[in-house]
Structure formats: C-alpha cells, structure tokens
C-alpha cells in the first residue's frame, strides 16, 4: 500500500509556504518598481475532499484545490487592488499593473494605507491548527454511510434522509507587506454531519447534527453523530403551537452564538463609521448584566480562529470585548479605526475566538432555572435591524414547564430589541458548543415576545 499523501492534502506544506512567501516578495518588488509607496500581498492555497451520501447511496465525491493571489497597492492615499489565481509570470505582472492602474485613478482616502509598522506581529507562533486527515475517498464514503445508517436506525419513524457528509480541508496562507512583515499560516478543518427526515406528509420534520474540529481525532464518531441526528429529528415530531405572550426564552448553545454574532455586527468598524449600528458611541456603556464577560482569545491551542496576526499583520492580543457587563472596545481594522479616530484592535478579517463566560450550570439546570418558557433550538430568517436593534426571527424548539421539556413547537416568532435583550440575559450555561470560534453555552433571556397562535385560533 502506498504511503503517499492523498491528493486532497499538501505533500510538503512547508515547501509550499516557502514558495508563497517568495512569490509575495516578488509581487511587492514589482509594486515598488511601479512607484507604489506601500503594498501588501495575500497568497493562499486550499485543498479538500467532500463526500455526500443519501439513502445508502453515494451522491457526490469532490476533491478541491484552489489558489488566490491578491495585491493591494497605495500611491500615497490612493488605493488599488487586483487578484488572480494564475501563477504564470505574465499574469502576475498584469495583476500588479492592474492594481497600480486602479490606484492612479482613485481619489485620495485619508484612512487608506497599511496598518502602522509599529503594530506588526513579531512573535509568529503556531497554535496546533495543522492536522491533515489522511483519509481517502473510499474511507470517507464508508464513514458517511455509517453515520447515516446509525441515524436512520435510531427510530422507525425516520423514513427519509437529507444525507450525510464528510468534509476535510487544509489551507496555507502568506500575508506580506512593504513594512517587511511576512506572516505564514496553515490550518486544517474537518466535519461530519447528518440530516434526517421523520414522519410523513404534513407531519414531516427535519433535523440533524454535525461535528467539526481542526483535528480528525477530535470529531465525534460517525455513529454518535448519526444517533444524535436521529434523536433530534424524532423529538420534533407532532409540534404544537403556544399562545402569544411574553415568556423567558432559552437559546440552546448552537443558537445562542447568533446573539453574539449580532453584537459583533453592531460593534464592527464598518457599521460604526457609517453610523449604521444601534451601538454607535457605546464604548463604556453597560449593555449586559454586571456579571457578563466576553473575551477574545486568539492564542487558544486548536482554536478555530487562533492566530498571532490579523489580516493586516497586526499582532493579536488577548482582551475583553465586554467586562462586568460594559462594552470595552469596538472590533476594528486599521481602516475603520482611522475613520473613527481610533486605533486598530487587530481585528482586520474578524475576531479570533470569543469566549462567553458561564455564570450558571449545565443545560438541565438552565431548564430548571427557567421553569416555564420557550427553548429555542433553531432560528429562521434575518429579521434584525442593525440600525435600531429591533429583532424578530422565526423559531422552533420546545415548550418547557416545571423545568422540563414538554413538547416541540414551531411556526413561532420571537421578538424584542437587542439592547433590551442583552440587558435581560439572566444566565449563560456551562454547556459550551465548541464547534465555532464563538464559544458559548446556552443563554437565558428573561423575557421576550413570542408570537404563537392568535386568540382567534
């Protein structure tokens, strides 16, 4: 049997990173030769394998390999960008020339330019994010089929399936700029998921489960993912309506991170300098209860977004976004920071692992604490007004009485205002969902409007 790496992995990642780093220097030199006062280059290569099966049959097997080269140049405070996936010399030269041409015809922008040289990262560590999965297509199909089979066998009422999937990917990246910064990163990510359908006709319900990790050994087993998908699906059969009213709402962990996502959108630089956020001028304001804590942790081993530098080469750092309920800072890259008269928070490209501190026990204890109310396990729609904070989303989940789940519910809408919802958070559970760079347990909001059946019903 051959020991060669599968086609969807990198045979020599270090050599490829060296090649990308060399390429970045060539492109920077070409930009300088054309008169650019500053320049930056991002080079990336990605490879992967994705397998989908349904009803015991293979639907797709796809191997992927992608490349991207992006060049940005500055002539003073005029900016131009261009990109290519072609490594031929003539294509690379044309890409630099195109970026320079765009910059020459662009108006000055006082916020344009590289991040300050003094902020560049110097401690370029890795964070245990490189774990290629040496799985071939046959083995991936076998695991996906086993996952779906375990789910379909979980209950006789599961008569159909939306399928099971296996995904594995590896990415290499180099960011370099004319400050002399060169940053190299490599990471992997793997997933295993299953979606099932139970019941018949109008009574059909769909649900599923998935596992995601940077290392294959951290994935849940295929059988476990399938069984959990099956259990979640049959639990949703025979849903009922609930009366419209105001109730406590417990967001299950996988839904709770959406609340943090809305916060991030509102405190991100682009929304703030455009005055398109309900949290404009809110740093120093108490938005959450006094016990609430939200920390950015870019140095977590095997963290989904662990990194020593952001998309501009700025050194990342551990810091609080919310401490003692008070918003400590915004989420800024250098451009949005300059527009706001502030300094970058090393968040060009996004946040790097957020941890919501728990103040309560596990999921069952949160149900007991809520007593009576709505457990939300799925959200639908995009009904959030970023300017006002008004919130209205379709939801499904379970009705809870006396601290115990009673029956499934769907076809409901939950509504409120995010500012009020943040202030009304009563508990964050210890049941953390680790499948995302936003790590939070379930979140209990003390009171929200729930629109169920009308009085006429």
UniProtKB/TrEMBL annotation:
Keyword field contains Protease: yes
Location of the Metalloprotease TldD/E C-terminal domain: 244-452
Highest taxon of the lineage: Bacteria
Gene3D superfamilies: PmbA/TldD superfamily (3.30.2290.10)
One term of GO molecular function: metallopeptidase activity
Pfam families: PmbA_TldD_1st (PF01523), PmbA_TldD_2nd (PF19290), PmbA_TldD_3rd (PF19289)
Leading EC class: hydrolase
Domain Metalloprotease TldD/E N-terminal: 39-103
EC number assigned by the record: 3.4.24.-
Listed InterPro entries: Metalloprtase-TldD/E_C (IPR045569), Metalloprtase-TldD/E_cen_dom (IPR045570), Metalloprtase-TldD/E_N (IPR002510), PmbA (IPR047657), TldD/PmbA_N (IPR035068), TldD/PmbA_sf (IPR036059)
Domain Metalloprotease TldD/E central: 131-237
Stored NCBIfam families: PRK11040.1
Similarity comment: Belongs to the peptidase U62 family.
Protein name in UniProt: Metalloprotease PmbA
Record organism: Lysobacter firmicutimachus
Annotated gene: pmbA
């Amino acid at each position: 049997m051959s020991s060669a790496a599968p086609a969807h992995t990198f045979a020599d990642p270090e050599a490829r990173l060296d090649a990308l780093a060399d390429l970045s220097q060539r492109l920077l030199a070409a930009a300088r030769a054309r008169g650019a006062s500053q320049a930056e280059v991002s080079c990336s290569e990605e490879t992967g394998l994705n397998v989908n099966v349904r009803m015991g049959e293979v639907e797709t097997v796809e191997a992927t390999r992608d490349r991207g080269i992006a060049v940005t140049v500055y002539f003073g405070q005029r900016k131009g960008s261009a990109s290519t996936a072609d490594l031929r010399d003539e294509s690379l030269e044309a890409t630099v020339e195109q970026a320079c041409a765009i910059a020459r015809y662009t108006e000055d922008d006082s916020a344009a330019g590289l991040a300050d040289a003094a902020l560049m990262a110097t401690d370029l560590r890795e964070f245990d994010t490189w774990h290629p999965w040496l799985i071939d297509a046959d083995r991936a199909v076998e695991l996906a089929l086993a996952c779906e089979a375990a789910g379909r066998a979980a209950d006789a009422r599961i008569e159909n399936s939306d399928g099971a999937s296996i995904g594995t990917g590896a990415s290499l990246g180099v960011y370099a700029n004319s400050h002399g910064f060169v940053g190299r990163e490599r990471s992997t990510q793997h997933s295993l998921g299953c979606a099932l359908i139970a019941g018949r006709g109008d009574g059909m319900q769909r649900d599923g489960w998935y596992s995601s990790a940077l290392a294959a050994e951290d994935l849940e087993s295929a059988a476990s993912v399938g069984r959990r998908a099956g259990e979640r699906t049959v639990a949703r059969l025979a849903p009922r309506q609930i009366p419209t009213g105001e109730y406590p709402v417990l967001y299950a962990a996988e839904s709770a991170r959406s609340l943090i996502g809305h916060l991030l959108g509102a405190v991100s630089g682009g929304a703030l300098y455009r005055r398109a956020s309900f949290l404009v001028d809110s740093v120093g304001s108490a938005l959450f209860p006094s016990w609430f804590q939200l920390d950015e942790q870019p140095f977590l081993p095997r963290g989904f977004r662990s990194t020593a530098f952001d998309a501009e080469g700025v050194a990342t750092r551990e810091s609080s976004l919310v401490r003692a309920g008070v918003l400590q800072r915004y989420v800024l890259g250098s451009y949005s920071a300059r527009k706001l008269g502030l300094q970058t928070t090393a968040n060009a490209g996004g946040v790097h692992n957020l941890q919501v501190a728990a103040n309560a026990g596990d999921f069952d204890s949160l149900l007991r604490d809520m007593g009576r109310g709505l457990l939300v396990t799925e959200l639908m729609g995009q009904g959030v007004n970023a300017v006002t904070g008004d919130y209205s989303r379709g939801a499904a989940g379970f009705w809870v009485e006396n601290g115990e789940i009673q029956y499934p519910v769907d076809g409901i809408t939950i509504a409120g205002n995010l500012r009020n919802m943040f202030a009304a958070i009563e508990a964050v559970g210890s049941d953390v969902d680790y499948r995302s760079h936003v790590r939070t347990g379930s979140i209990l909001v003390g009171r929200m409007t729930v629109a169920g059946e009308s009085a006429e019903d």
